[in-house]
Design brief:
The structure holds three protein chains of three kinds. By secondary structure, chain A is of the alpha+beta class. Chain A has nine helices and 18 strands. Chain B is globular and about 75 Å long. Chain B starts with a helix and ends with a helix. The chains are: A alpha+beta, B mainly alpha, C mainly alpha.
Amino acid sequence: MGSITLSNVKKAFGDTVVIPSIDLEVNNGEFVVFVGPSGCGKSTLLRMIAGLEDTSGGTIAIDGQDVTDLSAAKRGLAMVFQSYALYPHMTVRKNIAFPLKMAGLPAVEVDKRVAAAANVLNLNDYLDRRPGQLSGGQRQRVAIGRAIVREPTAFLFDEPLSNLDAALRVNMRLEISELHQTLGTTMIYVTHDQVEAMTMADKIVVLQAGRVEQVGSPLDLYRNPRNKFVAGFIGSPKMNFIDGEEAAKENAATIGIRPEHIELSTESGRWKGTVAVSEHLGSDTFVYVNVDGVGHLTARVEGERPVSHGDTVWLSPVAGRIHRFDAQDMTL
Amino acid sequence: MATAKSNVAARIMISPAVLLLLAWMLIPLSMTLYFSFLSYNLLSPGMERWIGFLNYEYFLTDPAFFSALTNTLILVLGVLIVTTIGGTLLALLLDQPIWGQGIVRILVIAPFFVMPTVSALVWKNMFMNPVNGLFAYVAKSVGLPPFDFLAQAPMLSITGMVAWQWLPFATLILLTALQSLDREQLEAAEMDGAGPFSRFFHIILPHMARAITVVILIQTIFLLSTFAAILVTTNGGPGYASTNITYLVYSQSLLQFDVGGGSAGGVVAVIIANIVAIFLMRMIGKNLEA
Amino acid sequence: MARAVNNKRRAVVTLIAWAVGIAIFFPILYTVLTSFKTEAEAVASPPSFLFFDWTLENYAEVQERSNYFLHFLNSVVISLGSTVLGLIIAVPAAWSMAFFPKKRTKDILMWMLSTKMLPPVGVLVPIYLLFRDASLLDTRTGLVIVLTMINLPIIVWMIFTYFKEIPGEILEAARMDGANLWDEVVYVLTPMAIPGIASTLLLNIILAWNEAFWTLNLTAAKAAPLTAFIASYSSPEGLFYAKLSAASTMAIAPILILGWFSQKQLVRGLTFGAVK
């Protein structure tokens, strides 16, 4: 079991309020991602759940039991840190065995579990090395191994992939997702990268300035963002925002259209503009267009479209895919 | 970072160090301050009485004080000049690609690890002695009369010995600073047409400025308290010719048993050291934030 | 990185550097050489450098005449004792300041340093009198206390900078792995801090071994360490160059060797981290 309930959780450092008040329910077995720009309080929130940071108010419960005043060591959670935080003076084997040693397990059982974890994570060849002799991806695996051996009630990940290069990041993303499928344990994952959030999460929690902006499944957030912030944060390339006259036509202060919901034509359409830059990715073409009276718009069109700098093009929004926001940036 | 429980532990852990140092600093210092207002001689116990600033008046107007102040200045400034300039040059030399760099470095650093009494006696007897010293032999072999260093130029001789001990310190620190200089900066300057001299004055020296300041300040603190080198070579003499403030206070308190006068001198020494310390603390404090 | 430097230039620079290095080292070298001469050869003119009758008799005589070993032992006890005691007090304090910094932490550190800048002569009289009244004059205990206190700020400071380099996340990881404070200190912090503590230990032994203000003022015959013992050779009644050299060589050799091992830490320790 691993359900986590936050009720009215607050955090302040001295006079600076970082998290005014948060209520959140994490169900057993769920993969929850906290996402938001840097400084939004997502890491602080995770560390409070971990017990590494005191809460200034409210309660945190794990499986219905109040753990607010319990130390990190006694909460039964495991965490993977951004820097991996491996013990540099211990071999990989000892790193992975450390939590079991702390739990006082018999040596035979420790060996068995370390071997099992090493198998799962492909670490068999490295067990007697020190962290300093490993690559970034291998260290990441050791950190995960150290987390899984003790069979925690939930896993906490604090931006675990941000120190890896792009290719490795995609691999590890898959591995963590697979791990979640296999273990079925609750996972809370903090990232500033919305792609990681979209690809891995069962449930995304979008945070900004210590407040929960929206909670929902990835597609839910993509389709029905509650406000302009969530709309802009989720999706890549970023949603286009248009205000002024064009928005007024739709009875809104601002309208938003995702680049993939703009149709591009070389003959006719709603807005006429000039191509500033076109990026040809093969599968897609990103076209950056200057439209008089509207501004810069990004369009994402499938396949290889032969447009280039200086071309005149027409852009039209896909019907029913226009997001409308009021003057307070809330979705209408 | 921290939780409430660990905060309590942290406070308990720091207490012994803080309390001990506080006691170590406050108790003797306030005693010195108190004694400095007393007429107090160890030879006539029980005769202590309050005499206000009289000890200070005697200490500061004593011709020995003036001579001690001058000698302190000569020693400090002399050693500083030799070690910072010499240290910079040595650091530049040791930074060059040379064969056996490690060994040369070890040779240069060695004097710093020699205890002050050994250094002073070796210089005094085996080098500066007017009869058997190596310098006397060299002088004789080129036809010069031997020079009695410690009798004729005691302060300069002591300055030389002390500079020999501190040169490695300056060199080591300046070399460390020099090696932290980004090589690409020098290469960029070279691409910009700077010759070796302008590279030294516009790139290297400004980079080392901070380390040079640290060397000067730290050495000053230690040099103000030079004691052993004087005690075993000249005993402050001839007359007061090689007495510095530290030695003067020592001789007044423990040789003449004048606790009151010695304490007044001690307070004066503390004030002088504090003036230097303030600047040093600022430098270190700035670094702490970075 | 390195550019091709032509070998001719390198040879010239090497020559200069070696000449300077040997010149600076010469007094030490000459002392060591003299320690193997007879007294007559030690003052012979012209002086000999290598071609003399090497003898070990000075070493034997230094011990015979003056119980050299006692003073050597005093030095060992005092420098080791004050260092270990200092570490016992300093490590918890540095741990506290490095991992649980408070608003005042910086002030405390700076204040600790400022006590190091107090000239010893400013507290000479009271310490002397207090020690006299507590019968601590000329005792090893007394010197251990004094040297512990005067070097404590440097020890705290050095350990603090080493602790600062240990990432906080590693300690947090240990906490997440179920380690309590004790486990955290024993299994994670201590092993990671050992290199730093070792070099602090080394540097502090050097400083304590060579300390020559308090050792000269607070000891006489019994507890005198080597600094004070060597100072007794300054008496002018007889010039025993060879014996002085032998005693000196034995006094500086151990520390010279330790010192060469701790060059890097020396910079850090003596500049309080201002130059790394």
